[in-house]
Design brief:
Elements lengths: L38 H13 L2 H14 L8 H22 L8 E3 L4 H9 L7 H4 L8 H35 L2 H5 L4 H14 L2 H7 L3 H17 L23 H4 L1 H18 L20 H6 L18 H28 L7 H20 L6 E3 L2 H9 L4 H16 L1 H7 L4 H21 L9 H23 L9 H12 L1 H15 L4 H4 L8 H6 L8 H11 L7 H7 L22
Antiparallel strand pairs: 1-2
Helix pairs in contact: 1-17, 2-3, 2-4, 3-15, 3-17, 3-18, 4-14, 6-14, 6-15, 8-19, 8-20, 8-22, 9-19, 10-12, 10-19, 14-15, 14-16, 14-21, 20-22, 21-22
C-alpha cells in the first residue's frame, strides 16, 4: 500500500558489455507485460491478486460503517463492501489497459482511515449510545427517521469531501504537476508518512480484537506462520499452469494465501465455539461479537444481486475537516503510487517508466477515486505495493492478468450475498488480520529510510522531529479535548484534525524541514534520473548511441504507449503537448525527475 518514492536506474542489472547485446531480464519473468498466459495460470494468478486486497476491503468496510453509526444488521454494510470491490475491479482494469499500462493492482488504502477515525475521536462523529453497542433496535418512526438522517448525512459528507480532494489528484496527473511535487516529497517524507500511518491506526486492531482476544491472536498467529515461517514452502504447479520447458520452482501457497487461510480457519473456530456454547449469547457481553450467528439477519435481508451506482446513498455533502484530512492523504497517496509504478516497472523489466505514463496513471487514479467517492465507499483507490511482490513470486507480469483480476472483482461485487457474508465476519478475525497488516505498514515506513544517510545528524533530526512532534501533539489533544478555541467552529475542527492526525502534521513538518535544511541529494536519498538512452542501455555517458540500442529502448517504451495515439498526434500536433500523451519522438527517454 505504500512504497519508496525514490527512483533508481538499473545501471548494473540491465547493462551489457556491447551496445548490440540484448538486455538481460533481471527477474526472468515467464510472461511479459504484453503476453497472454494460459487460461489456468491467468485465472489462478488473477484470483491471487484479488485476494491480496480482501483484508483491506473488509477492514475499510467495517471502519467506515462504524464511523457513520451503522448497526450490525444494516444492509448498507454489504452495499459498501460490494461497491468497494466493484471500484477496485474497475480501477484495476482501466489502470492496466489505459493508465500506466503496467500490471498495477488498484486497491483500497488504509491511508484514508485516519481522517475518518479522527472525526470520531475529536467528538464530531460520536454515535448515540444504542448505536455504539451495535445492538440498536428501531421501534418507532421517529427513531427510524433520526437514524437514517444521521447515517446518510455522514455518508454524504464522506462522498463530497473525498470527491473534491480526489479532483486534486486529477489535476496533478492531467497537468503533469506530479513531477514537480516529487521534487519536494523525498524518501524521508514518504517514510515518515507511512510510519505515522501505521501508528495512527493502532486503535483499529484493538477495537476489533477486544471482543475476544484468543480468536484475534489465533488469526494473527496463522497469518504470521503462513506468511513468514512457511513462505519458503513451495508446491509444484501442474504442467498446464506453466510454459512448456520451464522447470517448476514451486508455488508459495502459504505465503500468497496467508490471509485467506487465516480467515477460513478462524471462522471455523468461531463457528465451533458458537455451537459449543463457549461464546455468550448475551448481546451486552463483548465476546458476543465473536459469534458467527450475530449477523444472519443481514445475510437473509440482503438481495442476491446488487448494482452500485453514483449517488446511491444520496447527494454529496461537505465537511471542511474531512476535506483537509483527505486532501493530504490524496497527495501522499499519489506520491506513493509513483513509487509503486517504478517498483513494478523494475519487476517487469519495463524500466524506466516515462513521464507520460506516470502522469496518465495518476490521472486515471484520480478519476477512479472521484467515481469511488461518488459510490459512497468512503475511500479512494490506490496502487498496491504488494502487487509487485506477487508479480515477482509468480513470474507473471502480464497486464492482461491484472485486467482479468479486475473483471473478476467486478463480477463478484454484483453478488450482494457475497458482500453480506464478508461483512458478517466475526470482529476478532478482523482484529487479528489488521494487527499483522498494520504492523507491516509501519515497518514499511522504517524500511524506506534505507536509502537515506541515517548517519547524518541532519537526517536524524528531520526524521525524529517529523515523527515525535505529531505523536506528542495528537496525544496532547486526546488528553485535553476542547482546548482549540479560535472562535470559529469549522476552523477549530480543521486544526483539531491536523493536530490530532499525526500523518497530516508529519507530512507538513517533514516536507518543510527536508526542503529547508541544507543537504545533498545523496544524503537525502534522492537519486538523479536525468539519464538519457545511452546511460540506460549501455551504462555510459559517452553520448554515442547505436541504432540497435535505440530500437531496443523504443520497443520498451511502446509498452506504455496508448494504441492509435501516435497516428492521432501526426494529424493533430496539439495533442503531443498533453503531459499524459506519448509523443512519437523516441530519441530520448523522458523521466519524472
Amino acid at each position: 500500500m505504500a512504497s519508496e518514492m525514490q527512483v533508481q536506474t538499473n545501471s548494473d542489472d540491465d547493462q551489457e558489455s556491447t551496445p548490440e547485446a540484448k538486455p538481460t531480464r533481471a527477474h526472468q519473468l515467464i510472461y511479459d507485460v504484453e503476453e497472454w498466459p494460459p487460461i489456468p495460470i491467468s485465472i489462478s494468478v488473477a484470483f491471487q491478486h484479488l485476494l491480496g486486497c480482501l483484508g483491506g476491503i473488509v477492514t475499510l468496510t467495517y471502519t467506515v460503517s462504524d464511523a457513520v453509526c451503522l448497526t450490525n444488521i444494516d444492509p448498507i454494510r454489504s452495499q459498501i463492501f460490494c461497491s468497494s470491490l466493484f471500484m477496485i475491479g474497475l480501477s484495476t482494469v482501466v489502470q492496466s489497459l489505459i493508465g500506466v499500462r503496467l500490471p498495477v493492482f488498484q486497491g483500497p488504502s488504509f491511508t484514508f482511515l485516519p481522517p475518518i477515525i479522527a472525526m470520531k475521536t475529536s467528538g464530531e462523529w460520536l454515535c448515540p449510545e444504542p448505536i455504539q453497542g451495535n445492538n440498536m433496535t428501531v421501534n418507532s418512526t421517529t427513531n427510524t427517521s433520526s437514524y437514517n438522517e444521521l447515517v446518510y448525512s455522514r455518508m454524504n459528507q464522506l462522498q463530497g469531501s473525498l470527491m473534491l480532494a480526489s479532483i486534486i489528484e486529477v489535476v496533478l496527473g492531467g497537468t503533469g504537476a506530479v513531477g514537480i511535487c516529487l521534487r519536494f516529497v523525498g524518501p524521508i517524507t514518504s517514510s515518515v508518512t507511512i510510519f505515522l500511518l501505521g501508528y495512527s491506526l493502532y486503535p483499529v486492531p484493538i477495537s476489533y480484537s477486544k471482543s475476544y482476544w484468543p480468536v484475534a491472536l489465533t488469526s494473527a498467529f496463522i497469518v504470521i506462520v503462513c506468511g513468514i515461517y512457511l513462505a519458503h514452502v513451495r508446491i509444484s504447479l501442474p504442467r498446464c499452469c506453466r510454459r512448456r520447458g520451464v522447470p517448476s520452482k514451486g508455488y508459495s501457497i502459504c505465503d500468497v494465501f496467508a490471509i485467506l487461510i487465516s480467515i477460513i480457519i478462524t471462522w471455523i473456530l468461531c463457528f465451533v465455539l458458537t455451537r459449543a456454547g463457549v461464546l455468550p449469547d448475551d448481546q451486552t457481553e463483548p465476546a458476543y461479537k465473536a459469534r458467527t450467528d450475530t449477523r444472519t439477519v443481514l445475510i437473509e435481508t440482503t438481495p442476491w444481486f446488487f448494482f452500485p451506482y453514483p449517488g446511491q446513498f444520496g447527494a454529496p455533502g461537505f465537511n471542511m475537516a474531512l476535506f483537509i484530512g483527505f486532501l493530504s492523504v490524496v497527495i501522499s497517496s499519489a506520491m506513493e503510487s509513483v513509487g509503486d509504478y517504478f517498483t513494478i516497472g523494475k519487476t517487469c523489466d519495463a524500466f524506466p517508466v516515462p513521464s507520460h505514463a506516470v502522469n496518465r496513471g495518476i490521472l486515471i487514479e484520480g478519476l477512479m477515486s472521484v467515481l469511488s467517492a461518488s459510490l459512497g465507499t468512503g475511500h479512494a483507490t490506490t496502487s498496491y505495493t504488494t502487487n509487485a511482490a506477487v508479480v515477482a513470486i509468480t513470474k507473471v507480469g502480464s497486464r492482461y492478468v491484472l485486467a482479468l483480476a479486475g473483471v473478476m472483482g467486478m463480477v463478484l461485487a454484483i453478488f450482494g450475498k457475497l458482500g453480506a457474508v464478508m461483512t458478517s465476519m466475526p470482529d476478532p478475525i478482523i482484529g487479528g488480520i489488521t494487527l499483522v497488516s498494520l504492523g507491516i505498514v509501519l515497518s514499511l515506513g522504517i524500511a524506506g529510510l534505507r536509502v537515506v544517510d541515517m548517519t547524518s545528524s541532519r537526517n536524524i533530526s528531520v526524521v525524529g522531529m517529523s515523527i515525535f512532534i505529531p505523536i506528542i501533539s495528537s496525544e496532547w489533544l486526546n488528553r485535553n479535548p476542547g482546548q482549540i478555541q479560535t472562535g470559529s467552529y469549522e476552523l477549530d475542527k480543521v486544526i483539531e484534525i491536523i493536530i490530532g492526525f499525526p500523518m497530516i502534521l508529519g507530512i507538513i513538518i517533514a516536507v518543510f524541514l527536508d526542503n529547508t535544511i541544507k543537504g545533498t541529494k545523496k544524503e537525502r536519498g534522492f537519486e538523479l534520473v536525468t539519464a538519457d538512452v545511452t546511460t540506460v542501455v549501455n551504462g555510459n555517458d559517452t553520448g554515442t548511441t547505436s541504432k540497435s540500442s535505440l530500437t531496443m529502448v523504443n520497443k520498451g517504451r511502446d509498452i506504455f504507449d496508448l494504441p492509435y495515439i501516435n497516428h492521432l498526434c501526426r494529424n493533430n500536433s496539439c495533442l503531443k503537448y498533453l503531459p499524459f500523451i506519448q509523443t512519437n519522438l523516441h530519441t530520448k527517454i523522458d523521466f519524472v525527475a
